[in-house]
Amino acid sequence: MQNPPPVQTGKSSTGLDENVASLLSYVFGWLSGLIFFLIEKDSRLVKFHAMQSILLNVLIVVLAIVFSVVITVLVLVLGMVSDSLAAIAGILSYLLWLLLCLVILILWVLCLIK
After folding, report:
1. Which terminus of the chain has fewer CB atoms gathered within 10 Å of its CB, N or C?
2. Which residues make Cβ contacts (< 8 Å) with residue 78, sequence separation at least 6?
């Protein structure tokens, strides 16, 4: 049984391989995505990953803001009812925040690999 031929990757207009330029568009968040989106002229693959990097980072910021506002309001309201409930809500929100960060990290690594 023969092995399939290796996949040919092209060069981007930056002189880097498409795969390398695509990976680098995720490294510094939205900033590297924006840089590669603006300087890339030829490779649709690199432009796709650069735009995906920008949108992923915008999504992260929006989720962080929404999560922070919801948790702040929840802790303040529960604090008016009982200090114990506010403390429990604070601890749970911290654990949820850690879970959200883990999901974001996994998403980021998946984007780097693909």
Report:
1. N
2. 85, 86, 88, 89
